[in-house]
Amino acid sequence: MGWNRFDAFYGERSSQQDIYAGSVQPILRHLLEGQNASVLAYGPTGAGKTHTMLGSPEQPGVIPRALMDLLQLTREEGAEGRPWALSVTMSYLEIYQEKVLDLLNPASGDLVIREDCRGNILIPGLTQKPITSFADFEQHFLPASRNRTVGPTRLNQRSSRSHAVLLVKVDQRERLAPFRQREGKLYLIDLAGSEDNKRTGNKGLRLKESGAINSSLFVLGKVVDALNQGLPRVPYRDSKLTRLLQDSLGGSAHSILIANIAPERCFYLDTVSALSFAARSKEVINRPFTNESLQLHVLAPVKLSQKELVGPPEAKRARGPEEERIGNPEPPEPPASASQTFSSLQKLSSMDPAVLERLLSLDRLLGSRGTQGTPLLSTPKRERMVLMKTVEEKDLEIERLKLKQKELEAKVRAQETVDPREKENCSPTMLRPLARRTVTVAKPLKKAVVIPLQLIKEQAESPNANIHILKKKSRKRKLEGLDATESKEKAEDCWDLQISPELLAHGRQKILDMLNEGSARDLRSLQRIGQKKAQLIVGWRELHGPFSQVEDLERVKVMSGKQLESFLKANILGLAGQYGSPS
Ligand SMILES: Nc1ncnc2c1ncn2[C@@H]1O[C@H](COP(=O)(O)OP(=O)(O)OP(=O)(O)O)[C@@H](O)[C@H]1O
Q: For domain 3-282, which architecture applies?
């Protein structure tokens, strides 16, 4: 098994600090971006999972180090005068024989795991303690750790008989309008060891515990496989562990799996199995999701009465002491209370029909581009939310383009005033809104010269500046009978892109850089690269080293020569489009 199947390897001389700084610390900042993260220690019993996660006073492990840094980070970012107010809470639970037990309140019994309408996983009734310092954390954590179920096995005198899950939540509230709110969750998990009962000598209760441990780890493996294969059903619900981690494992979060191995010969099979699981987990593509909500009036400019803005008084009363702000003083209460806010990623049913229509066209567009996965409106909620967020971003982009268009029109009008003789040559299409404008071929030129909007200024300053030229291809294509998206794409194919060699070389280099340095997620931002192709490219790169030219893509077998041509065209157009789209 090649080491490139893993992100890092820590040997017997590696210290706790090496592991923490090398692999865990870098993900903490994502919590402040409202994203979820998880760190799991996985491996056979007695291999050192608890040592890695918890450590000892002399060699503190991942948990104390991460808490120390996270609290420091939140103190800095949430300081007075900074845009966001931050608060941190902790919960600590164990999953023992498929029961969810609150280690901070053992009397509460088996708790249920629920999913809210935004796809967030939560456990009603789970104790959440506000913490502002490491001393606060220790005060709750140390006694709770003693509540954890451990028992002797032949391999480990204090073997963890449960999965211990420490949940740290970072809540953020924007101090000024638009008063956004974010929540990032960090799961730090010491999994129970995968067990070979011949060696552990388990009998009776130990054997029963072992069955539950092994079956939930087996489901964890199935979840990883389903995520890797992009299966429509990921069996999160088949175990409490995976159900709990549904919004924080792979796919939508930053996940780190630490595979603890015991290198002795007698553990050979355990080692192979742990490494194979870790290698499969590495394949899971992460598309971290920011859990951010906005206020109603920001999204829908509908006037609300004062009563509506303040919200029902019970909404505020309903907030328990656990939800009270901690640490930094309460930010000035925004016009709407927290209960009056709702996610920008609201339910489809309550959406503006125009937005829904755009969503549907986006869905069609994604479908026509061969985007991986099921169509938008039947994907799981979280996926849907991500795409709805994209729609919002597209709206902003449209606004930006409209603004550019106005600037262009103003320029044209100014030109007309300066030289009225040129008025006759000015095609009326130039004054139409960008989205509706079609490229027409002016007869005397026999080709349409399309100048990227933002380049106009540069060109005026430098007459030799690069321009893109679109020239009609000689062969004709029938565009009738195609739907709007298809005909747009086909129309694009009817034009040959002639671009200055300098810009072409620049575009190719950018694509090459992306192929060599981009993660699978980055690669998906390229035109005509979906999840599967991105994975293949990353895999090829890991096996064969960097791409020497864009044409190497043919060797990866992700596209044919012809497809490569259109891939280049679409992406170079896209790059040019960053300076103004020649549509
Ligand atoms: N890198 C290490 N350095 C020093 N001691 C270690 C190291 N790794 C493990 N140990 C020791 O080995 C013993 C077993 O380790 P640990 O309890 O962490 O295993 P585990 O994988 O959590 O086991 P289980 O799955 O049974 O809970 C402990 O006494 C621990 O202190």
A: 3-Layer(aba) Sandwich (3.40)
What residues form the annotated binding site for ATP?
Answer: 43-50
Query: For tokens 């640490």, what's the residue?
Result: 327
Domain ranges of the chain: 3-282, 292-319+336-399, 438-577
Hey, which of 18, 49, 50 would you mutate to test ligand 1's pocket, going by the most ligand atoms within 8 Å of its Cβ? Answer: 50
Distance from residue 48's CA to the centre of ligand 1 (Å):
3
SS (H, E, C) 213-272: HHHHHHHHHHHHHHHHHCCCCCCHHHCHHHHHCCCCCCECCEEEEEECCCCCHHHHHHHH
Atom of ligand 1 nearest to the CA of 47: 21
* pLDDT score recorded for residue 47: 87
* Bridge partner list, 149: none
Dump the DSSP string for 433-500.
-GGG------TTTSSEEE--TTHHHHHHH-TT---EEEEE-SS----TT--HHHHHHHHHHTEEEE--
Does residue 524's CB lie within 6 angstroms of at least one atom of ligand 1? no
Say what the pLDDT of residue 386 is. 59
Which residue ranges of the chain lie beneath pLDDT 70?
A: 1-4, 149-159, 195-214, 250-252, 282-393, 415-499, 574-583
pTM exceeding 0.80: no
Rounded to the nearest whole angstrom, what is the distance from the C-alpha of residue 380 to the centroid of ligand 1? 39
Q: Which residues is 318 bridged to in the sheet?
A: none
Q: Which fold, 438-577?
A: DNA polymerase; domain 1 (1.10.150)
CA of 250 to the centre of ligand 1 (A): 26
Give ipTM to 2 decimals: 0.95
194 lines ligand 1 (CB under 6 A): no
pLDDT of residue 527: 83
Does ligand 1 lie within 6 Å of residue 260's CB atom? yes
